Amino acid sequence: MKIIRIVERKEVVLYLEKRNLLRQYKKAKNFLLAGGFYLTDFKKRKPKEDGIWYFRINRQFRALAYLDNDILVVFDINNHQ
Fold first, then answer.
1. In the CATH scheme, what is the code of domain 5-75?
2. Prediction pTM value
3. In the chain, where are the structural domains located?
């Protein structure tokens, strides 16, 4: 699998800024673009038929996304606690 670009919705960026997670999110995003899927725990969420992927931002927060061809679209940030 190859991810060419990662795109976020506006509300996701506002959520990250409000909780001071922007720097950690950019770091996880760069790992994914470089192919380091294991570093961010990039997995398909169950039920797998839905096509929703998630990756770890830090211990507490996960980003939910879907793949549109080779573009990963982040639509939500989830508090994993």
1. 3.30.2310.20
2. 0.91
3. 5-75
